[in-house]
Design brief:
heterodimer; A: 319 residues; mainly alpha; disordered C terminus; B: 355 residues; four-stranded antiparallel β-sheet; 25 strands; 43% strand; globular; IER (chain A)
Amino acid sequence: MEFKLEAHRIVSISLGKIYNSRVQRGGIKLHKNLLVSLVLRSARQVYLSDPCPGLYLAGPAGSPAAPPQQPGEPAAGPPAGWGEPPPPAACVAWPETEPQPERPADPAPPRVGAAEPAAPVTGAGDALRAGEMEEAEAAWRRVEGPREAAEGGAGVFAGAEGPRGARRHCGCPPGGEDRPGALGACPRVDCRCAPRPAEDEPPAPPAVGPRKRGAAGVGGGPAGGPAPGSSPLKKPRRNSEEQPGGAEEEEEMETGNVANLISIFGSSFSGLLRKSPGGGREEAEGEESGPEAAEPGQICCDKPVLRDINPWSTAIVAF
Amino acid sequence: MEEDIDTRKINNSFLRDHSYATEDKTVKLWKVSERDKRPEGYNLKDEEGRLRDPATITTLRVPVLRPMDLMVEATPRRVFANAHTYHINSISVNSDYETYMSADDLRINLWNFEITNQSFNIVDIKPANMEELTEVITAAEFHPHHCNTFVYSSSKGTIRLCDMRASALCDRHTKFFEEPEDPSNRSFFSEIISSISDVKFSHSGRYIMTRDYLTVKVWDLNMENRPIETYQVHDYLRSKLCSLYENDCIFDKFECVWNGSDSVIMTGSYNNFFRMFDRNTKRDVTLEASRENSKPRAILKPRKVCVGGKRRKDEISVDSLDFSKKILHTAWHPSENIIAVAATNNLYIFQDKVN
């Protein structure tokens, strides 16, 4: 858990540096901004993937060899940290997270779950282990279709998403909750917050907060207490759902923190972080560039993570 | 001046007493001279330089040169402008003493000293789409003997050796030096600390030395897959990288130098410390450039940083290091054991013990 905190802290520091570089004398330093963006990317990957401790931090890491991308391999066993409520500090870090609208009360503090952005996302480990929000977003769009199928058997899974689904962090009124596949009547045309079709399902397993989907079902039953039997069922579903959920959570968590930066950086983002060495990002990029291009300067729920993660590209593009 | 100034002295009879500097994106060639006499006794000017009315002059005298306090003057003689879009990080004079190169983040240009309005671009790593940028050039230097060969280092910790005879645009390297990353040392800051801040050919031309944030490495030009020697400059900072990132110290660009015989290498550190490594005996020493222990003729005492556990007397603990006192620039006389060390706004010159 502390790695997430560290990653979060590093993300904040990095964004601050990028912002300051725009106003300092002498012009933007390409080299420094490039390095800051690399740190930002590393921190974000850790943040999203919630890997085994020590993966990204220097230390006696047991298995640091595993790079953040571990496609196709379910988390062997989630770290012990899963299923535990994140420390309060994490909550405090996200003051702007919006209050949840009505939603069946969930056992664990819902907001606390917010601080654990990628726990669920990475819970599945596999697809999102790539850890890139872009892929998450793209995958989320692809998932819209199969959502209907997913709805039926969502079960716990659905419950886990419930609270989150009801609320749209972008402020769009909840709607279309039980309409599978419906993008919902989000008033903002460019808002890509996902409706949560499975919201009418019973709440998530008790020991796990709504956000902690990771705990709820990821690979094999972490400490939490979700019905073990449902784990295998959850996992495949979770994969497809995790991504958008994770994306949402990530957005939500980042938004409050970087609203200022977002407004400053404004225009469309893409860039180095998108075109990371992994080849698999191409399709994500392709899908992305369309919507991104369509909404330059929009400050909304859509891809705030991208925005704040990629602000350096503005600096580069600014040359 | 807030712009970064990168200076090199040209030590050659043809261009003696000339040095050149860059201000961000312009290169200037300066003539540096010393003056220790000045003329006195002009007829048409008085001592303060004001013109005298010729009508008031009744006698004539011959001006004479009188000694004065030594003064160093620098006069710009050439300005090489408008060839760089990004910040210049290196300039290197070629062994032919007719050309030199200037390197910025993405391009390297070749100049002739006599031609200020034209340069040749010899390296260009700017991607078509800037968003695909993954590395920048951090330092470049010509080979000391082969005027067609140069190296440049990157922010990814790699060095490329190029031969200008191969093609006009040296985008294809002749040699590529890179050490595989040690996975056990992976951290958020791995990329930053592997960025090379300085690259220097040995005087012999057989080796290159690179400086990254925590180490100095010596490479044999004939072996590209790893350095032949690695020296830890201040490994105790490895656990402090996050704080150093926060206070921007991790972006400090330290230089490194060879001694005249290529047997000792030197580089700077924090707390006004600088380090020397003897390549033959494998011994190293940490010295401090400070006013207290730099009375003339005083012998520098080796310093030691305590990394944990009990701190001995005279040792300094890592947390007491002053990170605002950094030695980024050092120089070693080409043939004597005399070094120059720049500590913030003081320049220290040390020499070997004279027995």
